[in-house]
Design a protein that fits this description.
Layout (H helix, E strand, L loop, with lengths): L2 H7 L13 E4 L1 E3 L14 E3 H13 L3 E3 L17 E7 L4 H12 L5 E4 L12 H9 L3 E4 L12 H19 L5 E3 L7 H10 L3 E3 L12 E2 L2 E2 L6 H8 L3 H24 L1 H11 L1
Parallel strand pairs: 1-5, 1-11, 2-3, 4-5, 5-6, 6-7, 8-9, 9-10
Helix pairs in contact: 1-7, 2-3, 2-7, 5-6, 8-9
């Protein structure tokens, strides 16, 4: 799809918008000189300037930045009838504190940060002091599981432990309720959603590239890549069918092979992803 087509998709009429709220996923922010060097040279890393421009685009479009817990199915009929967007960050990397947090604070915006509790305090990841400083400034922290593993492949007892331990540790440190789980690798099934609800999570956040329905048991999210240009970003923000269709079709084609690879070679896939994300 050419740039002009994507640009046109971003200025859709309200009746052409997909229903739901865009929930955007970031994995790491870095300065341009570091992106492209070593393991940062991959599609999941976004530059600080890109992120600043995207926040400016959200403000220009009159879109409200909200947290997951503040979304309601009937938001558009309440006092704030602006369209909304949710910003989420996975993995709890130290760039969340060093890069994303100052940019968000300057823009007076809030975001959801999903942590693997086993990684908190390890080199390259957030520590509890940083997490609590961000929380006091209005950022929200939720679960990405205890370890960064494919939760669908675990026996039920280990799945329950991963979900329970992550929620308990976060709530003990943050002194607030943890209501949302973002699944590592985007892998989920009905058993995982059922166990998450039984553990006390309100919803499971996935990697399905489609606008989210706030009241659903699973919340769709769309990833933002280093190569996501401003025209494509506008289309995603505007819930353009063209922009989401462009993302959803490749996602659907890759989901089954990725799921099979995770089942057959989980350790090799996990190692490869840790080296390339």
């Amino acid at each position: 799809m050419g740039t002009s087509a994507v640009a046109a998709a971003s200025f859709v009429q309200p009746w052409l918008r997909l229903a739901g709220t865009p929930v955007l996923t970031y994995h790491g922010l870095a300065s341009p000189d570091k992106i492209g060097a070593g393991r940062l040279g991959n599609r999941f890393w976004v530059s600080r300037l890109q992120f600043e421009n995207q926040l400016s685009e959200i403000r220009r479009a009159g879109v409200a930045i909200k947290l997951l817990r503040t979304l309601r199915p009937s938001d558009s009929t309440r006092e704030d009838n602006r369209p909304a967007v949710v910003l989420t960050f996975d993995d709890g990397r130290v760039s969340d504190y060093e890069v994303a947090f100052p940019v968000l604070a300057q823009a007076q915006a809030r975001a959801e940060f999903f942590l693997n509790t086993a990684n908190v305090g390890k080199p390259g990841f957030l520590n509890w002091q940083q997490v609590n400083e961000m929380r006091r400034a209005g950022m929200s922290f939720q679960s990405h599981g205890h370890h960064h593993v494919d939760l669908c492949s675990l026996p039920l007892s280990e799945l329950a432990r991963q979900l329970r331990d992550s929620k308990r540790i976060l709530e003990e440190h943050l002194q607030c309720s943890v209501d949302f789980l973002a699944v590592p690798y985007g892998q989920f099934n009905s058993r995982l959603i059922s166990e998450a609800r039984a553990t006390g999570y309100r919803a499971v956040c996935t990697s399905r590239c489609w606008p989210a329905r706030p009241a659903a048991d699973s919340i769709n999210r769309v990833p933002i890549y280093g190569y996501t240009n401003i025209f494509e970003f506008r289309g995603l923000l505007a819930c353009s069918p063209l922009s989401y269709g462009k993302r959803a079709i490749p996602y659907a084609m890759k989901y089954v092979p990725k799921h099979l690879l995770m089942r057959v070679w989980p350790e090799k896939v996990a190692t490869w992803r840790m080296q390339h994300e």
